[in-house]
Amino acid sequence: MGNEIDVHLGKRLRRRRRLLGLTQQQLAGACGVRFQQIQKYECGANRISAARLWQLSEALEVPVAYFYDGLSAAAQERAAECESGGEVLASKETMDLIRAYYQLGERPRRRLLDLAKSLNGDVEHG
């Protein structure tokens, strides 16, 4: 569920930034980060901390709650799609996979995650 929230916050961030006509570089400068960090926030790749969310809300002239608008509907939709999610997480195969994943170093983990995402994309689009 965390990733869904990160993606939602990122979409709201991008929408507001564009509405104000700001570049990622300009917003990054206002928050004291590099524009690449804004890119990662906007696509949901990086989680936005509470302090950073506050800075972004100030720079974009919106209340922090703006970023969460519409989230409950999206969260409910996601929950309906994954009703059996608890069963999947409880399976032995899933637990074995998680343990093996975290025994890898950071770089192999990242490569494995990228591979899994690319395979998922092939299934969804092909």
Please outline the helices and strands.
Blueprint: H1 2-19, H2 24-31, H3 35-43, H4 50-59, H5 71-81, H6 85-90, H7 92-103, H8 106-125
Quick one: CATH class of the largest domain?
Answer: Mainly Alpha
Per the CATH scheme, the topology name of the largest domain is 434 Repressor (Amino-terminal Domain)
Mean pLDDT rating: 83
Number of domains: 2
Distance between the termini: 26 Å
Q: What structural class results from the helix and strand content?
A: mainly alpha
How much helicity do the residues have? Answer: over 70%
Tally of DSSP helical segments: 8
Largest sheet: none
Which CATH-level-2 architecture of the largest domain? Orthogonal Bundle
- Strand fraction equals under 5%
What's the number of extended β-strand segments?
0
Poorly predicted ranges (pLDDT <50, ≥5 residues)?
A: none
H/E topology pattern: HHHHHHHH
What is the CATH H-level superfamily of the largest domain?
Answer: lambda repressor-like DNA-binding domains
Question: What can you see in these coordinates?
Answer:
By secondary structure, the protein is mainly alpha-helical. The protein folds into two domains: 2-73, lambda repressor-like DNA-binding domains (434 Repressor (Amino-terminal Domain), Orthogonal Bundle); 84-125, no CATH class. 75% of the residues lie in helices and 0% in strands. It contains eight helices and no strands. The protein has helices at residues 2-19, 24-31, 35-43, 50-59, 71-81, 85-90, 92-103, 106-125. Helix 1 (2-19) packs across helix 3 and helix 2 packs across helix 3 (35-43). The longest helix has 20 residues, at 106-125. The model has no long low-confidence stretch (mean pLDDT 83).
